[in-house]
Design a protein that fits this description.
By secondary structure, the chain is α/β, with parallel strands linked by helices. It folds into two domains: 2-173, Rossmann fold (3-Layer(aba) Sandwich); 186-279, Pantoate-beta-alanine ligase, C-terminal domain (Pantoate--beta-alanine Ligase, Chain: A,domain 2). It has eleven helices and nine strands. It has a six-stranded parallel β-sheet with strand order 1-4-3-2-5-6, sandwiched between helices. Helix 7 (121-137) crosses helix 8 and helix 10 (201-215) packs antiparallel against helix 11. The longest helix has 17 residues, at 121-137. Bound molecules: adenosine monophosphate. Residues 25-26, 32-33, 36, 146-147, 149-150, 173, 175-176, 183-186 line the site of adenosine monophosphate.
Amino acid sequence: MQVVHTIADLRAALAGRGRPAFVPTMGNLHAGHLALVRQARPLGDVLVASIFVNRLQFLPHEDFDSYPRTLQADCKLLEAEHCDIVFAPRESDLYPQPQTFRVQPDPRLADVLEGHFRPGFFAGVCTVVLKLFGCVFGGHPGTAVFGRKDYQQQMVIRQMVRQFALPIDIATADISRATDGLALSSRNAYLSPEERGEAVQLGRALQALAQAALALRQPLPALESDAARVLGARGWQVDYLTVRQRADLQAPEGKPQAGQLVALGAARLGKTRLIDNLEF
Ligand code: AMP
């Protein structure tokens, strides 16, 4: 496995290796990331993972500085998964000048949910992903794998790829969960033992909301407010708990139809912001 830090070294490492299968990450890898890597392996001739904590997608008060950076441990895990190339640029390698050009995603998709609570988040994500795609694929075909844990993110990326006619297939991976059901996340490391016990309630709230939405004994907004109140009473600060159409992340029109919906949630437990979702 080659670990490269500059775009020039990445391009040299990729020369003549065929179609890349690419897994972008911010590192501090866990079993969820490794499942993406395993899924990616048969999808290309050369398997590339990137590790880069992208400043552009963090708001000033967010955890950019404290985000766990564990390159050595990450490389060991990737080597065990037979990754071919790790692209771990320093900030000055990927952004040698201030990144003043940005990708502006469709506000209808990117300014709701995560984008509403983290303004500019998806512009930051799309800008770095487009740049990473340029570095890894250089306009040639390939496949990139994203997790459905970040449900809105994979939709925004798919739309970007379609609208810019990039020759890149986007594959998505199921959410990897701990045995108690908590979605794996690098941010779970911030949780105290007590918070870690409580954290499973976010997924449970989404399950209960999905069931209630199908039973539809009350209008959806009332069910969503109830769900937020229940988590709030347990000490969470809820950003959103909501049922949306999978197709466009808008509120369902008419009676919610099973098989076309997704319940999405984001909430803070102490200092830790967690997200989760459930297709139903
Ligand atoms: P991150 O390092 O958090 O930016 O995540 C890198 C990629 O891993 C993204 O495509 C995430 O959606 C995906 N990912 C992170 N956690 C999980 C998980 N628990 N299950 C599935 N995919 C995940």
